[in-house]
Amino acid sequence: MGITLIDHYEAYLGEIQSGGVARDQNGNMTIHIARFAEDRFGVRTLATLGLSRHLLQTWNGSSIRQELIFGFWRDLDPSLVAGLLADVTEGILADHRALYSAQIIEKRGRLFQGYDYVGLIACRPVYLDSNFIIAELEAGPVYMTWLVPITQADIDYANQFGATELQRIIYEYPTNFLGIGAHAVSVAGEGK
């Protein structure tokens, strides 16, 4: 028997400290959300647990299994992040389409009160060990997708220069994007 998703998560993120269940409008469970121990730098991580039970269609018509993660500094309420993960997961399950690399998800209003984030961009979790990115499970590979909060300025930058350019900035400065911090345009400078 191979490793489980929980084994994979805990090997890179530490022990699961707590969790919850996301439910749809009818009260049916859609997914579990796991919260991991804070790391030595003060970063907390929440991740979906079970999204990968669903085969999701990709932009090119193939199918993959995917889980979502969100890393953030300790000054943000984990229940807000859990709600955001649940909301994104519901959207994925509604049409069974995987998030693709550099996909921007715009939300209505701010993601978190007191912060200017109005959307997310899907990225590989480059701030973690490269072996974390794909969990090789018995059912097949599971692709980990890091959701990075972005501002309207970041979205405008992506509209002007492309979402992959915004993603490149995030990959160049990954620890600046663990949830609450500088946004890509200010990290990279106001223009290209």
Write a concise synopsis of the structure shown:
With 192 residues, the protein is an alpha+beta fold. The chain is built from five helices and nine strands. Helix 3 packs across helix 4.
What does this structure look like?
With 192 residues, the protein is of the alpha+beta class. The chain is 27% helix and 32% strand. The chain has 5 helices and 9 strands, in the order H-E-E-E-E-E-H-E-E-E-E-H-H-H. Strand 4 (56-57) and strand 5 (63-73) form a beta hairpin. Helix 3 packs across helix 4. The protein is globular and about 45 Å long. The model has no long low-confidence stretch (mean pLDDT 86).
Molecular shape: globular
What gyration radius follows from the Cα positions, in whole Å?
A: 16 Å
Mean pLDDT: 86
Give the distance, in angstroms, between the N- and C-terminal Cα atoms: 49 Å
Helical proportion, percent range: 25-40%
Domain count, please report it: 1
Low-confidence stretches: none
Major β-sheet, in short? Answer: 9 strands, mixed
SS strand fraction: 25-35%
In DSSP terms (H or I, runs of 4 or more residues), the helix count works out at 5
H-E order: HEEEEEHEEEEHHH
Structural class: alpha+beta
User: Number of DSSP strands?
Assistant: 9
Task: Describe the secondary-structure layout.
Layout: H1 5-13, E1 16-23, E2 29-36, E3 43-49, E4 56-57, E5 63-73, H2 78-95, E6 104-106, E7 117-123, E8 134-137, E9 140-151, H3 152-161, H4 163-172, H5 184-188
Parallel strand pairs: 5-9
Antiparallel strand pairs: 1-2, 2-3, 3-5, 4-5, 6-7, 7-9, 8-9
Helix pairs in contact: 3-4
